[in-house]
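Long-time lurker, first post. I've been practising inverse folding by hand and with some scripts of my own, and I keep getting stuck on stretches where the structure tokens seem ambiguous. Below is the full token string for one chain I'm working on. Before anyone asks, I'm not after the true native sequence, just a reasonable design that respects the backbone. If someone could post their per-position residues I'd love to compare against what I wrote down in my notebook.
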């Protein structure tokens, strides 16, 4: 059986036996009025929220590889702005983590793997010649604390983020759930 088939088969059980009931929340708004931007690492699926005593329905979660905010008007920033203005989030958490796959990533190895999976060198060359620096675009970060602080700074200074929204920076250890404070957003509130 293929993975998707087994997942859909389980879903029939999930619905038939009302397993969804234990995940229901009051509404679509985060009960603790917070949005978290974190990494898509599988170890953080539940750990990122549970380590901060956040349950289903407490928080909106936005994820990408490495919790890296690459563009001030990209999809991650748009999601954070929507969470603040439309989904009642009053605070933002940026959570990076130790042992992240995006730390010190070898972009040449990624491009080599792309070619091994069928992306032609000519395609990579066309993208380079068109002005896309693939190495920069695929690059992660060198230091997780600096990466989190950079994201917090970009969000805090964004012209569409209200001045009264604290933006916190945290780094979690995926081995034990310990969270370290990198930036206390309450200290950076703008008037």
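-- Answer (accepted) --
I ran through it position by position. Result:
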């Amino acid at each position: 059986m293929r993975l998707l088939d087994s997942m859909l088969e389980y879903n029939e059980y999930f619905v038939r036996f009302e397993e969804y009931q234990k995940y229901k929340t009051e509404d679509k708004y985060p009960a603790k009025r917070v949005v978290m931007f974190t990494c898509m690492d599988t170890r953080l699926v539940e750990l990122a929220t549970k380590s901060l005593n956040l349950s289903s329905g407490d928080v909106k979660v936005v994820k990408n590889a490495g919790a890296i905010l690459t563009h001030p008007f990209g999809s991650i920033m748009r999601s954070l702005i929507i969470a603040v203005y439309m989904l009642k989030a009053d605070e933002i958490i940026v959570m990076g983590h130790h042992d992240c796959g995006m730390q010190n990533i070898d972009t040449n190895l990624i491009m080599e793997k792309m070619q091994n999976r069928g992306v032609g060198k000519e395609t990579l060359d066309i993208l380079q010649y068109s002005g896309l620096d693939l190495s920069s675009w695929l690059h992660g970060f060198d230091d997780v604390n600096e990466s989190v602080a950079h994201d917090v700074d970009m969000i805090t200074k964004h012209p569409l983020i209200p001045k009264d929204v604290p933006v916190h920076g945290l780094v979690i250890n995926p081995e034990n759930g310990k969270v370290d404070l990198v930036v206390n957003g309450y200290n950076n509130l703008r008037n």
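A couple of notes from the structure itself: The chain has seven helices and five strands. The mean pLDDT is 95. Happy to go over any region you disagree with.
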